[in-house]
């Protein structure tokens, strides 16, 4: 039966596929169009291998592997590479697969060294049909905003405004999934705790992140000629996401949070 002992046997081959895909994508895909196809094929192969572990581990646990930080890092690595592949397919940024691979590798390494996996049981609040869609759409939105933040960093570094037209649809997709996550969380909270919104620390930071993403869209609509502040705001939004994801656990109020499941 699959357990975390087997994780490196799936993660390392997946990383090898992703690294090889990133190496092919670093070539000029305009002059060498076949390399773009090879890069995507290798990335997809890595996603299949990595996703197979998640599916098998889900079956072995008898519950969705979404309860602990270690388990959410597992999903984030998968979605980060999926988002990177989507961005590469749409806009052919040669650096995106390489950076996505580095990010995924960091999360995989942390999971190997400190997996943070608990027992098979789920507390009553997590035994809900909303558990899987709520957490997965949130983590997918995090990966989308991660790619947008990378564009912000590269755009600022190169003093190049050309990344903003690509970042705009990413932010819209990200905020769509973020909104779906918040709405499903509200319905889940009503079932579990009797109210849609409780100003829990996690909920408060989620609302701040959502507002930050809306502010980026506002900046782009009202000040389309400016590029530095939108890039900066992409990075700020991603920092707020990190605070919402795991930074809130470092706050004194985390102990009384309804989202403290461990």
Task: Give short descriptive properties of this protein.
single chain; mainly alpha; 8 helices
Model description:
Helix content is 71%, strand content 0%. The chain has helices at 7-25, 33-61, 69-91, 96-113, 131-158, 164-193, 201-222, 228-245. Helix 6 (164-193) packs antiparallel against helix 7. The longest helix has 30 residues, at 164-193. The mean pLDDT is 89.
Biggest sheet, open or closed, and with what strands and sense? Answer: none
Task: Give the SSE order as H and E letters.
Answer: HHHHHHHH
Write down the overall geometry: flat
Number of helices: 8
**Which range best describes the helical content: under 10%, 10-25%, 25-40%, 40-55%, 55-70% or over 70%?**
over 70%
Short description:
This protein has 262 residues and is mostly helical. 71% of the residues lie in helices and 0% in strands. Helix 5 (131-158) runs antiparallel to helix 8.
